[in-house]
Automatic annotation (TrEMBL):
Gene Ontology CC, one term: membrane
Transmembrane segments: 20-39
Species the sequence originates in: Dissophora globulifera
InterPro entries: Fatty_acid_hydroxylase, Sterol_Desaturase_Related
Protein name per Swiss-Prot or TrEMBL: Fatty acid hydroxylase domain-containing protein
Lineage: Eukaryota, Fungi, Fungi incertae sedis, Mucoromycota, Mortierellomycotina
Amino acid sequence: MAPTVQPPLFSFISDQSLALLLPIVVYWTYSLLFHWISLQEFPWFEKYRIHTKEEETRNRVELPDVIKAVVTQQLLQTALGFLAVLADDSEMTFDDELALAGYETRVIQLLSFFGLQKIVSLSAVAIIAHVCYYYLESVARFTVAMAILDTWQYFLHRLFHAVPILYRHFHSRHHRLYVTYAFGALYNHPFEGFLMDSVGAGLAFLISGMGNRGALAFFSFSTLKTLDDHCGYNLPFNPLQLIFSNNADYHDIHHQHFGIKSNYSQPFGTTWDRILGTHMSREEANEIIRKRNERRAAQVASVAAGSIMSIATTSSSKAPHAHHKDQDVLSGGNNGGNDCHEESEHKAYAFRLHERRPGNLERHSTGSCLVDREGMLTRSRSRLDSDLISREGLGKAL
C-alpha cells in the first residue's frame, strides 16, 4: 500500500492552522474559568487559594495591562506561525502498513530472543504491533517532546535570571506578578515569549517527530499546563497538580523574593531543578518565611521597647504641673508601594519606624505617646501577619 496523506480533522481548516489556534482558545477558556472562580470566592475554593486577595495589591501591573500584553504576544506568535505554515507546503504522509509490518517484525524477533515465538500466535503479534504503533509510539513521542520543552525552558529561564541585562529588559516583566493568576501565564516580553514558548514548542515538535495531530495535542496541553501553574490555587483534587510535581504551589515559590533563584523548571517536571540544586520545596519555603517573620517581629518589639523607654525618660524630666495638648503623631504614609521585593519594603518599613521615634516627633503627653506606640505595634504585627504567603490560602501547605 502506498503512503497516504493524512486528512485534516476538520474540512474547513488544516491541522497545522488548528494547532496554532486551539491553544489560544484553551488559554482564554481556562483563564476565564479561574477568573470567575476568583470573583465568586467560593469557600470551597478559597481555602486552597495560595495568596489572599489583599495580597494581589502587591502586583506591579494591573489586570487590563496583563490582558493587553498577552493578546499582543499571541497575535505576533500566531502570525509568525501562519507564515511558517504557508512556507511549508509539504503534506503529512503515512504508510501505516509498512510501519505495522516493521513493528510485527520487531515483536517476532523479541519473542524469538526469549523463546516465546511458539506460544504467541500471529494474530496476537498483529495486536501487539497495532498497540505499539498507534498508542505507545504516540505516548513516547509526546514524552520526548515534554522532556525537550522542559530542558529548553529550564536553561533559557535560568539564563534570563542570571544575565542582568536579560532580566532587566525582558524577564522582569513577568515578575511584576507577585501573586500569579491564570491570565498572567503568558505575560512576558514578546521577545522572551517567542524564544521560551514558540521556539521551545517548535523544537519539541521537530525533534520528537510527532505528526500534526500530535502537535495539536501537545501545544494545547502545554498551554493548559502553563495556565494551571499560574492559576493561584493549590487544588488537591486537580489532576494536573496531582500528577505533575511542577504545579501552581511549586511555581508560586519562584515568584516570591526568597525563591526567585529557585524552581526554574517549567512546565512539566522538576528534574533539572533537582539535578542542578535549584529545587525548593514548600517545607523549605515555609521555614524561610517563619525565620523572616521572627526577625521582623523581634525588630518591631525592639523598636517599640526603645521608643517607650525614651518616652518615659522624656516625661520624667517634665514639671509635674505641665500639661500639653495631645498632638496627632501618626504618620500619614501607607504601605510603601506594591514592590514584591522584600529588601526594598523592609528598608522603607524601618525608615517609617525611625520617623516615629520621640526624637523625631513633636512634644506630647506620655499617655498619647503610649497609645500611639501600642497602635503602631499592633499595626506592625498585623502587617507581619499579612506578609505570610497566606495563612489559609496555601492550600494547607503551611
